[in-house]
Amino acid sequence: MSYRVTFVCTGNICRSPMAEWILRHHVEEEGLDVEVDSSGTGNWHVGNAADERTIATLERAGYRSAHIARQFEADWFDRYDLIVALDSGHKRALKAMAPDEEAARKIRLLREFDPEAGGDLDVPDPYYGGTEDFDLVLKQVEAAMPGLLDEIRNGLKAA
């Protein structure tokens, strides 16, 4: 059975789809049995593609992208092994939706997997910014990948 990971941000058009496609790239490269997707805490962009700046940032870095935004739903907790929030506000929103403590334990912040992040665990929202803001998100997501992949490998071994 596949290990299932989802990323969650606000509208599911910037940070979480970027993280989704970067992780997809790495698990495909390693041949890991992992399903990856993403969603948002809000419904503003449901049905829309990823922000064009997200797509451009991913493409400049050599990643693929195909995405339709959706909103995270409380009954999805059983579907995932790991739910990765992009900032502490998303983590709080997800914890408020969690049906029980077991579900809440699945929620982690992405930058928890980056040993260089220190106490700054939020990935900033680039939506109202420019190219440099999207590049920063890409850099922060990529920095968390080695630790996240270790977590996933451990989860696959335990399954």
Q: How much of the polypeptide forms β-strand, as a percent range?
A: 5-15%
Q: How would you spell out the order of helices and strands?
A: EHEHEHHEH
The biggest sheet amounts to: 4 strands, parallel
| Domain module count | 1
Largest sheet, spatial ordering of strands: 2-1-3-4
**CATH architecture field:** 3-Layer(aba) Sandwich
| Helical residues, percent | 40-55%
Write the CATH homologous superfamily: Response regulator
How would you summarize the topology of this molecule?
Layout: E1 3-9, H1 15-30, E2 34-40, H2 52-60, E3 82-85, H3 88-97, H4 101-104, E4 107-109, H5 131-158
Parallel strand pairs: 1-2, 1-3, 3-4
Write a structural description:
With 159 residues, this protein is an alpha/beta fold. The protein has one domain: Response regulator (Rossmann fold, 3-Layer(aba) Sandwich). The protein is built from 5 helices and 4 strands, in the order βαβαβααβα. The protein has a 4-stranded parallel sheet. α1 links the parallel β1 and β2. α2 crosses α5. It is globular. 39% of the residues are buried.
Which features does this protein show?
13% strand, alpha/beta, 159 residues, four-stranded parallel β-sheet, 42% helix, globular, Rossmann fold, 4 strands
Structure summarized in a few sentences:
Residues 3-151 form the Phosphotyrosine protein phosphatase I domain. With 159 residues, the chain is an alpha/beta fold. It has helices spanning 15-30, 52-60, 88-97, 101-104, 131-158; strands at 3-9, 34-40, 82-85, 107-109.
